[in-house]
UniProtKB/TrEMBL annotation:
PANTHER family the record matches: 6-PHOSPHOGLUCONATE DEHYDROGENASE
E.C. number: 1.1.1.44
A Pfam entry, by short name: NAD_binding_2
Keywords (A to Z) from UniProt: Gluconate utilization, NADP, Oxidoreductase, Pentose shunt
Catalytic activity from the UniProt record: 6-phospho-D-gluconate + NADP(+) = D-ribulose 5-phosphate + CO2 + NADPH
Name of the protein in question: 6-phosphogluconate dehydrogenase, decarboxylating
Keyword Transcription regulation assigned: no
Lineage: superkingdom: Bacteria
Known role: Catalyzes the oxidative decarboxylation of 6-phosphogluconate to ribulose 5-phosphate and CO(2), with concomitant reduction of NADP to NADPH.
Pathway involvement of the protein, from the record: Carbohydrate degradation; pentose phosphate pathway; D-ribulose 5-phosphate from D-glucose 6-phosphate (oxidative stage): step 3/3
Quaternary data: Homodimer.
Entry similarity comment: Belongs to the 6-phosphogluconate dehydrogenase family.
Protein's UniProt keywords contain GTP-binding: no
Amino acid sequence: ATAQIGVTGLAVMGSNLARNFARHGHTVAVHNRTAARTTALIEEHGHEGDFIPATTAEEFVAALEKPRRIVVMVKAGAPTDAVIDEFAPLLEEGDMIIDGGNAHFADTRRREQALRERGLHFVGAGISGGEEGALNGPSIMPGGSEESYKALGPLLESIAAKAPDGSPCCAHIGPDAAGHFVKMVHNGIEYADMQLIAEAYDLLRTVAGYAPGRIAETFRTWNTGRLDSYLIEITAEVLAHTDAATGRPFVDVVADEAEQKGTGRWTVQTALDLGVPVSGIAEAVFARSVSGHTGLRRAAHGLPGPRREALAPAEAEAFAARVEEALYASKVVSYAQGWNMISSASGAYGWDIDLGAVAGIWRGGCIIRAAFLDRIRSAFAAEPGLPTLLADPGFAGEIGRAQDAWRSVVATAVGHGVPTPGFSAALAYYDALRADRLPAALTQGQRDYFGAHTYRRTDREGSFHTLWGGDRGEERTG
Ligand code: NBP
């Protein structure tokens, strides 16, 4: 047995990850249900490092040093269970199965518990960065036991992306499913970021009257400032691209129906269960969903809306600057919501997640990588118990300075009939959190009226009910 690590599941992610391990000097055992993929990997990339190809599960397990470390990179869901069922009986106490797929965190909790009872470690590891990241350095979010991280962490850290300060984009997130949970929220934040960028594009196109090439330039400029990020960078690339077949801007020939694989939806479903408002992510998921409802869109097409001309060039430039402010402020809100969700789950499941460390490992490798994440890391380093990023003095100051522009952009969007659910939801969340009083008091009154659900008072302890159907006297109920 000479391999430090094994990878089973050699489609694009698994083979790139195996190559990444090999390129970093590790001997890698490789295995796939269909042996042809294993052969192809060795033929095409065998020269990149030390691989031990295995045809059967038994051969694969025999090639691994103890404690064995098996990375599973198969399609999430039933295939993952099938692979676990195949390998677990061949393993010994202390061995590790690492699921690098996009598993739902509830499945990871179930699998971790089942394998723990058999003396095996199960590590749900979120891996972000797509195929390119898997090969050249992903952001890795491993969960599982502390003990498993001791044996696994150095290997994973060696292949992870490096943040600008040189630290690896991999850290032990917390027990059982903490890693897959955090990866899910990463994807939710990614949805929100993409939606906000799309809204900024729509405003620059429709209200400022900019052509896609000009908008690409605007994004390139923004990418040199506080919005500096992978997503802004690729947005400029996509907008600058011309369709070869028609000579038209690429963005104008693509069908405007956004698809989704489901991690955004999981984030929102889970947030509802935890009772955490993640309106930015929810609006992003719904916006993709609206775009795909072609029947509804066809039925509503042509309904009345405002008739507004695009702005004059002099005004357009000032407007574009305000859009940058609105985009930034909305982004801070959606990250604040995402972190709030991680913090709530960490409490609910007893994961004890280091919130600053999560920002640290997203600085490189993953889709939402950005200079901005270093600010989040610093905010939690300065105040580990920070209840919301919006309360960090740095972010609070920036939002305070951006808020006039933010409000004006949302108002202009409404006036021009441009849908900006992300910008608007972010602003509404900000205004709700900072309000002295919320109309929730009225909601409580209504609930007490129709359902005797009781309410608390601002001036006395206890719960109360008003006898709405009687003399409207008040009784204390608890
Ligand atoms: P796929 O998700 O397309 O899965 C293909 C692999 O699963 C093949 O190796 C296939 O083996 C194996 N497999 C299946 Br399907 N059913 C199996 C079973 N019952 N038993 C054993 N093996 C089975 O591969 P991928 O796109 O490389 O993604 C791998 C994982 O990484 C997924 O969970 C994905 O969500 C996650 N992920 C993907 C990306 C990305 O950018 N693609 C990014 C981050 C995470 P076969 O060759 O015998 O059919």
